[in-house]
Amino acid sequence: MEEAIGAMNFWTILGNIFTLPLLLATLRLSTPIALIALGETYSERSGIINVGVEGTALLGALVSSLVAYFTGSAWIALLAAVITGGLAGGLHALWCVRFRANHVVSGIAINILVGGLALFITSAVWGWRGTSPSSPPLNTWYIVGAMFVLVFLSQVFIFHTRWGLRLRVVGEKPEAADTAGINVHRTRYIYTILNGMLCGLAGAFFFNNVTRFTSGMVGGRGFIGIAAMVVGNYSPVGALGAALLFGFIDALQMRLQTYIPSQVSIMLPYLITVLVLAFLIKRAQVPAGLGKHYVKQ
Amino acid sequence: MPEFAIEMKGIVKRFPGVVANNGIDFSLKKGEIHGLLGENGAGKTVLMSVLYGLYYPDAGDIRIDGVPHKNYRPAMAIRLGIGMVHQHFMLVPRLTVAENIMLGQEPTKSGVLLDQEAAIEKIEAFSKQYGLPVDPRARIEQLPVGEQQRVEIVKALYRGADTLILDEPTAVLTEQEIEHLGEALAKLKQEGKSIVLITHKLQEAIGMCDRITVLRKGEVIGTVDAKETSERDLAEMMVGRDVVFTVRRSQVTAEPTTVLRATEIRACDDRGLEALKGVSLELQRHEVLGIAGVQGNGQAELAEILTGLRPPTSGTISLGDLDLTGKGAKAFIDAGIAHIPADRYLRGLVMTFSVRENAILGQHRKRPFSSTPFWYHQGATTRFTREIVDAFDVKTPSVNTLAQNLSGGNQQRLIIGREFSKKPHVIIAAQPTRGLDVGGIEYVHQQLLKMRDQGAAVLLISMDLDEVMRVSDRIAVIYTGRIVAIKDPEETNRRELGELMLTGSLSSERGVGETA
Amino acid sequence: MRSVLQALKQSSFLQETGITLLSILLAFGVGCLILWAAGYSIPAVFINLWKGAFGNKIAIGNTLTKATPIILTSLSFLIAFRCGLFNIGAEGQMYIGAIITAVVGAHLHLPAILHSIVALFAGGLAGAFWGWIPGYLKAKRGVNEFVTTMMLSYVAIGLTDYLVAPRGPLHDAQAYANQTSAVLATARFARILKPTQLSWAIVVAGIAVLLVWYFLFRTPSGYELRCVGQSPTAAEYGGIRTKRKLILALSLAGLLAGLAGAGEILGTHFRFVDGFSPGYGWDGIAGGLIARAHPVGTVFSALLIGALRAGALQVQRSHAAPGDIATVLQALVIFFIIAPTLVRRLIRWRRRSVQ
Q: Which is it for strands B108-109 and B113-114: parallel, antiparallel or unpaired?
């Protein structure tokens, strides 16, 4: 009799966890990861590694909170976030292309810079270190929808249009692109700025999800986004698939918190990421020209 | 109608430390094949890169079809009808032939989506018209080198080239493939194209070209009619002195003793395809065994197998009594096998390390450099480096200069000095003279033969058939991962070897009427 | 005199140092712009920055105390960097080292100095293990170490958080805060500059600098590590076992970060407290970069960052500006340092405009 009750508890628990809200939460939580992964796919396919996606997303969230506060409009805030993200991407591209900085290090610098700026600005503007006041958000499902549209458009763009072909060539063999008359540097700028814009959008998602800014709100999801890109093998649809997996884990761990200690379940997404990378990666199709500076005479 | 497709006057192009083009005049008549001849570093590629818009000249004028142009980029050059086929192909391995060719001029459906079929149709049309068979749907990385080159040529034609620049096109081809290329060029000429052929090979220049311009050290020595000159004349113009091959192989009368034995080696390349299909070799003391073959037939993998950089999937390697099968590079180095790698940038040197730190690479854990894992001896390292630099005439400002700041020739000398000073029993030399000038090449050959005279067993892998024939005591021909013949250089000739390299067998040994 | 100047100009060491200093100046310049744009008084900020960092004995003590773990985490980043790897998990490795040290320090009974050393090494080894994991994954499965070290850092922080939370196994039953029991007196490092928190841990850091220098430049193993970092293909050609070096590099990186954590526990806090590190692991990344990946340079860069951090507290306290301006400055310095072409171009531009 007791065993039957025990078994029933297990199934009830499962039933409590795996529900429609879980599915919806998965879709929502995958969105920023997918956006970042998509952006990084564009950037890395042009040959630029951008680990500053974490900071850029945070910047997007910060700018969202600032502009929403001062204008009262979440939509204008979203636009501002996207533009600022693009600027950050442009800065990174400038450093990598023009000044030939090490891509990874430049990205790290962006992360540190935005981290510090976020604390500085929130203190300066509102006197609260690392948090912003609440502002009326927009419905995050708009962003979710936009994400799906962007992913599928990107899949077609990269593999079936002429600009996508040129993008791929720039990433694989910039010399070949150059001799075909394609401007390698300009391509890298464009797609890294696009990367930044998508991260800004992800940041706007974070803000609208909880109506305020907190300094830890990206919480490593930028890096998970990079992992998603790798698992997805540098294709938009692949990145989406991986992002859905990670989003699922994220959504799951929140529900598990009623059953296991919160600190443990918070660790889950990160742990799973490591395991996925460790065991699910076969030979990845890394663009051959990734991370190398291209110098023309 | 202008008589000249291209006119270049007074072209000057400087790079840090060197004047690559020093006031060069060059003109290409319409419908001619014009050879641009010169040693490595004479400035041929630079001149054509200027023409193609990859470099801006520091001075001089360019007229294309009679119209002056200045400071333009390759996109413009393509529009003006100039196509360039580079020595190192500008093809993306992971993409298809069609994708590579249509890059920049992609046909589209409704302006947005790529129209692969239209491109493929156009490519097949060109391919047929000029007798250049290519498979538009294949991925570049699946194609042999000869076909890749055809892709490059079709690519230029696809973009509307009337003038073609071919940079050292025969560097990777065999005799028969060169013949095919010659036929293709003749066809192109027939169809009204003008061609510049950059080469350092004398026979090619005379055989394929109408006129030849010789460059030396960035200057034009002269322009001659191919019919009115000879190899000797051209050679003299190229190097400024009577070219006498001073390297002579002395006869060695020692008893042949096998030092390194490889038996039934099978191995895969980086892509997992089988590159060696049962190769057996014996390296003897006092002997240079030359491996002749077209690039891509397994030589690179063979060199890696024999130096421990790649494990064989089956077969054995032994040095005397010592079994080296499956062991790593360290075991091979410790066994006294020296390796002059084909790529000195990737393998041979750490470019950002100093000469000193490069000199001990491979022996850094041995005495006298480090007697324990806790200390490595600065003084001994410096002394040793100085000895090498002196003995092998490596021109460097100091032993602390970074390797990347040395010239190619001196980098190669450093590598040779390092490897040979180990007094190795076996030397695996892969493309050891790549990128060197005549003086450098002679030096390397001298050193190899010296080591051979002193008792080392030398394996020479080279794409340059002349080099292999000149330096080797025995020549093995490698074809699709198998050794198909071993010949005595005195008893064979270029044509025979070429046939072996391309087809794997001799028509004289096949029945009459059989096809290759 | 002229020939001395010529010689100085040629010296690449001085050139590099000059560029570093110039980068710092430029970064501070941009920092001033930001302060001005936000309406803060620049003099007030800099006066307080100086006061907090070097103003008096206490300030200097604070600066040095903060610099101590940063030296170690900078070395951590640096040693991995020299092998071509990015260790950005120093923070997590520090936490793992710290908690193991706290446990060994609180529950083992050993005579005085021995206890300290054992606890220190325990922390180091724990950190080494945490670094070994991404190293192994990278070597055997080619997994990007940037992401794995980052992820494991979060895991480490979450794990230790759980362990010292009120119902966690290592929680100090008598305390409200999330912490372990106090480390026994036998394990603690003595304070050397009362009343600041500066302890013998700084000596440990100094020794680490020398050891890392010696390892990289005077041992065959360090030579091999650097070789792999500069050219893995040439390293393979030279008979070096590349994979082993990758694992070694990240393990050593973890070791150094673990020592940083151990030093903080044994010298500063005497127990593991949740959140004991205000981000020393991340500072180590900046420290390694500003030091141009030279072990001896970490002393300078850690001092700079330590000074910024100590000064920032004073800036915050005096309400001259939000203290986080220090982090912003730090990031700006990195930006300028990693773009040597930018700095050189500015020098040339200045020279030309002066003529």
A: antiparallel
Report domain extents, chain B: 4-239, 258-503
Residue of A50, A108, A226, A264 to mutate, testing the C interface (most C Cβ within 10 Å of its Cβ): A108
Number of alpha carbons in the 13 Å side-chain half-sphere of residue B490: 3
Q: State residue A6's pLDDT score.
A: 55
List the beta strands (DSSP E) in B200-297. 211-216, 219-225, 258-268, 274-284, 287-292
- CB neighbours of residue C57 within 10 Å: 12
Rounded to two decimals, the pTM is 0.84
The conformation of residue B507, written as its DSSP 8-state character, comes to: T
User: Between chains, do C331 and A112 touch, taking CB under 8 Å as contact?
Assistant: yes
Q: How does pLDDT run across A239-278, given as a tens digit for each residue?
A: 999 999 999 998 888 888 877 888 888 888 888 888 888 8
DSSP state of B43: S
Mean pLDDT of C303-313: 93
Give the three-class secondary structure for B506: coil
Q: From B267, B328, B262, B313, select the one nearest B476 (Cα to Cα).
A: B262
Domains along chain A with CATH numbers: 21-280 (1.10.3470.10)
* Residue to substitute from B334, B350, B356, B381, interface C, most C β-carbons within 10 A: B350
Strands (E), chain C: none
Query: Is C338 exposed, middle or buried (CB count within 10 Å of its CB: 0-12, 13-18, 19+)?
Result: buried
Of all helices (H) and strands (E), which one includes residue C300? helix C297-317
Tens digits of per-residue pLDDT, C3-19? 665 555 556 677 778 88
pLDDT for res B513: 42
Cα A80 from Cα A208, distance rounded (Å): 13
pLDDT class for B516, splitting at 50, 70, 90? Answer: very low
Report the CATH architecture of B258-503: 3-Layer(aba) Sandwich (3.40)
Q: How large is the average pLDDT for residues B213-234?
A: 86
Q: Residues with Cβ < 8 Å from C64, sequence gap 6 or more?
A: C193, C196, C198, C202, C303, C306
Over range C220-231, report the average pLDDT: 94
> Are the C-beta atoms of residues A201 and A36 closer than 8 Å to each other?
no
End-to-end CA distance of chain C: 22
> In this complex, do C147 and A277 lie within 8 Å of one another by their Cβ atoms?
yes
Element at A266 (helix H, strand E): helix A262-280
- CATH architecture entry for B4-239: 3-Layer(aba) Sandwich (3.40)
Region of poorest pLDDT, from A185-199, C169-183, C340-354 = C340-354
Domains (range + CATH), chain C: 23-30+49-354 (1.10.3470)
B362 vs C219, C233, C239: nearest CB: C239
Sheet holding B337-340, edge to edge: B337-340, B426-430, B457-462, B287-292, B474-479, B482-487
Residues B55-92 have pLDDT tens digits of 899 999 999 988 999 888 888 888 899 999 987 788 99
The dihedral built from the CA positions of residue B498, B501, B502 and B505, taken in this order, carries a sign that is: positive
Name the region of A127 (left: φ>0; alpha: ψ -120 to 50; beta: rest).
left
Residue, of B74 and C280, whose pLDDT is higher = C280
- pLDDT value of residue C354: 54
Q: Please enumerate in sequence order all residues whose Cβ is within 8 A of that of C300, keeping only pairs 6 or more positions apart, or say none.
A: C290, C291
State whether A99 and C341 contact (CB < 8 Å): yes
Other beta carbons within 10 Å of A250: 23
Instruction: Name the percent of chain B lying above pLDDT 70.
Output: 92
